[in-house]
Specification:
This protein is α+β, with helices and mostly antiparallel strands. Among the domains are: 124 residues, Nucleic acid-binding proteins (OB fold (Dihydrolipoamide Acetyltransferase, E2P)), CATH 2.40.50.140; 122 residues, Beta Barrel (OB fold (Dihydrolipoamide Acetyltransferase, E2P)), CATH 2.40.50.140; 139 residues, Beta Barrel (OB fold (Dihydrolipoamide Acetyltransferase, E2P)), CATH 2.40.50.140; 68 residues, no CATH class. 20% of the residues lie in helices and 31% in strands. It is built from 17 helices and 34 strands. Strands 5, 6, 7, 8, 9, 10, 11, 12, 13 and 17 form a ten-stranded mixed sheet that branches. The longest helix has 21 residues. It is elongated, with a radius of gyration of 31 Å. The N and C termini lie far apart (72 Å). It binds one DNA strand through strand 18, strand 19, strand 20, strand 23 and strand 27. It comes from Scophthalmus maximus (Turbot). Belongs to the telombin family. This is Protection of telomeres protein 1. Keywords: Chromosome, DNA-binding, Nucleus, Telomere. One of its GO terms (cellular component) is nucleoplasm.
Length: 775
DNA sequence: TTAGGGTTCG
């Protein structure tokens, strides 16, 4: 059994050089345990991987033997690369039979069927460790109109195969089945599918799954870090499942790679877990002059490989009992691997790389090439002289988000540096926020046009002047070079790209950057200052100096978080969340000058809050509940007034790598679907008078139509429609309980529900005007 | 014009 995963080399990394390392025979045959002690002669590289929640640093140190333990707990999955395609992977002695031609009376012992998964049923458990799963596959090459009969067939998987397919397969995958039996379909009248079913069970049954898994570079590092280095145990079961959650291919890659900082060598892109044979890891090292190439790469292929640009599809083959097909598959796998530098799109010359670089250029670059924009010159920061107007590049070592000055403009404050090691302060005044540099974190790179140099306190500073323009870039080595600017036209060419990349590499080699202070809620320490990347869920004014922001980042702070009660009708966004979600929500109190900016935020916005303070056990917070004032072990989050240490808030754009990363974390939260309302919850809400539901669970609407109520319901957590009855509130329909939650409506059963109406407290509820009700 | 980094009232 083996697992092999292939990751494509992405465009933004094509100038990287690949070294390959192969670890032959870490373990001998799984079924031959005596042999497993032999041979760990495979040469291995050692990695130093430093991982913090938002950054990762991988350093190539030296080579040493790698303890390869725990290889045997692998689920029977083959992941084969697309290069060969399904046809090449399956045994050649089998012939393909089109789905419509499958017939119960024919002999299928040497046949295979190929089709696309159009429906995947749930995994059903028959007994402990015995499963069944039904899926529907459709003849892949079928014409939509011509002879469309019986193009789709039920495939029933049994045992471990069902379980593995449940994890590894999904709708849209292309599968090849062999070793199946054919049975009469009992559901043909209902599903109108093929009159036969394919049954995949027993030793001969085999299913090859071709899926569009595409691992990100960094994801692989994570896996290697996680499974290989930390625990020395493979958990391919997990990796397959998790990988399949990472289908957002290019984006995912960009995000992850741009969140790397200071990468010296990146492992993977083409790695294989091959149990019993070898582990195979490729190393990509950026071609920057500072880095000397690794001495004598182990693999003879090493210098030949540079990059592969093609989209690859990963093949997964599932087998109940792999023994019989295993040898074939493995041999093919190895063969495929040794040929892959021919078979896949690998570029071996600098010329080809250059070609791809130019293919990779942006529209702007092409435009600027054609229209001959005048060339900019950039003055190194060490060569600045007072009294001139210059263009500069620099790495951000300090920044303040734009803040309101006493004059007419917003003011940004930066400190930048470059290879000259000069640190230069910059002050930028612009009326419009969008004209300010879009700096998200220290290490970002800025290019500024038309800044004037002036002396202040014995050093040169930069201030923007007429015609000022700024573009910012992420500072992560290997990440996409995407200019952040609101400018419609700006010059950007290959030289700019190179400058950015050189600055990135240089910065990565320096220790000039302060340690990362962006941490998730789960890692917050009392008294710490930190930057928080989060999503705003709701906000509410607390008093004249303070606004409450309710935020989350998908992680849970191990400490009790401060609970701040505010009046419901001043809350923007939902006034309450599910219990599980509430546990993840941090209440951030934003003071003074930050209130104005906070006022413009909308629930749903993705934010980075800079220099947030985690304060333990305060009891003097406005709105604090009396029960909590006793508590000492809670954390409050304060964004204090002022802009010291870059204190402030920034809305992160939806397409930024930071937000993409955050979104993945939030999507992983299992209870994200607030629409799901269990019977007991419904009962709880229903049978409890509104005013006693923790004060904020139920909204009452009065005298509205169904349509109005529905519209209203979209904006509230729960709505129980009521009507006016003698000036009091009454349920619209007493025969059955119903509850509106967002777009969903929940109805109780007439027979078994007992609806009780209690009069809500008058506070916050309008006195009902009979005329309005009548209207 | 404005700011010219350097924590904390809450």
């Amino acid at each position: 059994m083996n697992v092999e995963t292939t990751v494509e080399m992405q465009r933004s990394l094509i100038q990287w050089t690949v070294w390959e390392f192969q670890f032959p025979k870490q373990r001998q045959q799984q079924h031959n345990p005596e042999a497993s002690t032999t041979s760990s002669e495979g040469k291995v590289l050692t990695l130093s991987v430093t991982v913090s929640p938002h950054r990762m640093q991988v350093k190539l140190l030296e080579r040493m033997p790698l303890a390869a333990e725990g290889h045997l707990d692998v689920m029977p999955v083959y992941v084969l690369s697309e290069g060969a395609g399904p046809g090449a992977q399956v045994p050649t002695d089998l012939t393909r039979i089109p789905i419509p031609l499958i017939d119960i009376s024919a002999d299928h012992s040497n046949k295979l069927v190929k089709g696309k998964v159009i429906c995947k049923g749930p995994l059903m458990s028959l007994a402990a460790d015995d499963f069944v799963l039904k899926t529907v596959i459709q003849e892949e090459d079928s014409q939509p109109d011509a002879s469309s009969q019986n193009q789709s067939i039920n495939v029933v998987l049994f045992g471990a195969m069902a379980k593995h397919f449940n994890q590894a397969g999904s709708q849209g995958d292309v599968v090849v089945a062999s070793g199946f039996t054919v049975a009469k379909s009992s559901t043909v009248d209902e599903d109108k599918l093929h009159p036969c079913n394919l049954l995949l069970s027993g030793d001969d049954a085999c299913l090859y799954v071709s899926t569009c898994i595409n691992l990100s570079l960094v994801y692989c590092i994570w896996k290697i870090y996680d499974e290989f280095i930390t625990s020395h145990r493979f958990k391919p079961n997990n990796s397959i499942r998790e990988v399949k959650n990472q289908r957002n291919l290019d984006k995912h890659f960009d995000i992850m790679s741009s969140s790397i900082c200071g990468v010296y060598a990146v492992v993977t892109v083409h790695y294989k877990y091959i149990i019993e044979t070898f582990v195979h890891i490729s190393v990509f090292v950026p071609q920057v002059s500072r880095l000397t190439p690794l001495p004598d790469p182990i693999s003879p292929l090493a210098n030949k490989r540079n990059a592969t640009l093609s989209t690859e599809i990963t093949m997964v083959a599932l087998k109940c009992k792999p023994r019989q097909h295993f040898t074939t598959a493995r041999q093919q796998l190895i063969q495929h691997d040794s040929n892959s530098h021919n078979a896949t799109a690998i570029h071996t010359t600098q010329q080809q790389i250059t070609q791809h670089n130019s293919i990779g250029e942006t529209e702007t670059e092409r435009v600027s090439r054609r229209t001959k924009v005048p060339k900019y010159t950039y003055v190194p920061l060490g060569d600045l002289k007072a009294g001139s107007v210059v263009n500069v590049y620099g790495v951000v070592v300090f920044f303040k988000q734009p803040f309101k000055s006493r004059g007419t403009d917003f003011c940004s404050s930066l400190k930048i540096t470059d290879q000259s090691n000069q640190k230069i302060g910059c002050t930028i005044f612009c009326e419009k926020l969008e004209d300010h540099p879009k700096i998200y974190q220290i290490g970002d790179i800025v290019r500024m046009h038309r800044v004037k140099t002036q002396f202040f306190n014995n050093s040169i500073t930069l201030v923007n002047t007429f015609g000022f323009a700024v573009v910012a870039f992420d500072g992560a080595v290997g990440g996409a070079v995407e200019p952040r600017t609101s400018s419609r036209s700006f010059h950007f060419d290959q030289e700019d790209r190179r400058t950015v990349e050189e600055l990135r590499s240089w910065a990565a080699s320096q220790t000039l950057l302060p340690p990362v202070c962006t941490i998730p809620l789960s890692a917050v320490q009392p008294k710490a200052y930190f930057d928080l990347t989060c999503q705003l869920l709701a906000k509410a004014p607390v008093d004249t100096t303070c606004t409450l922001l309710r935020v989350w980042d998908g992680t849970r702070c191990p400490r009790t978080l401060l609970n701040v009660m505010v009046e419901r009708d001043v809350t923007e966004g939902p006034s309450s969340f599910s219990k599980a979600k509430e546990k993840l929500i941090a209440n951030v109190l934003v003071y003074d000058n930050h209130m104005e900016f906070a006022g413009q935020l909308k629930p749903g916005d993705f934010l980075r809050i800079y220099n947030l303070r985690a304060i333990p056990g305060s009891s003097k917070v406005p709105g604090l509940t009396s029960s909590q004032s006793e508590e000492v072990d809670h954390l409050a989050f304060h964004l204090h007034g002022g802009t010291a240490y870059g204190r402030g808030i920034r809305v992160l754009p939806e397409n930024s790598s930071e937000v993409q990363e955050l979104k993945r974390a939030l999507e992983a939260f299992p209870d994200n679907d607030e629409d799901a309302l269990s019977d007991s919850e419904l009962l709880e809400i229903w049978s409890t008078p509104p005013e006693s539901l923790d004060g904020d669970t139920v909204e009452c609407s009065s005298g509205s139509t169904l349509e109005e109520t529905s519209r209203l319901a979209a904006g509230y957590h729960n709505i129980v429609p009521v009507k006016s009855s003698d000036g009091h509130l009454a349920l619209l329909d007493l025969s059955a309980p119903f509850l509106f939650r967002g777009r969903k409506r929940f109805y109780g059963c007439k027979r078994c529900s007992e609806a009780a109406v209690r009069e809500p407290s008058a506070e916050g509820v309008q006195v009902i005007d009979e005329k309005i009700v009548a209207e």
